[in-house]
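Quick start: read one record
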Amino acid sequence: MQTNVGGIDKIIRIVVGIALIVWAIAGGPVWAWIGVLPLATGLLGWCPAYSLLGIKTCPMKK
């Protein structure tokens, strides 16, 4: 599992994930629990969809 999420992409995923989870806890719709996915991918630095599509937003290591 190689890191494919980096930089601003990670920050956006974590913020959106937390916001959706807080919304779900505060009485929002059930689908708001989908925020667990962007939060997890942001924290892990790996996105399975990016792997399938061959996308990398993290800088290359030298």
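The mean pLDDT is 93.
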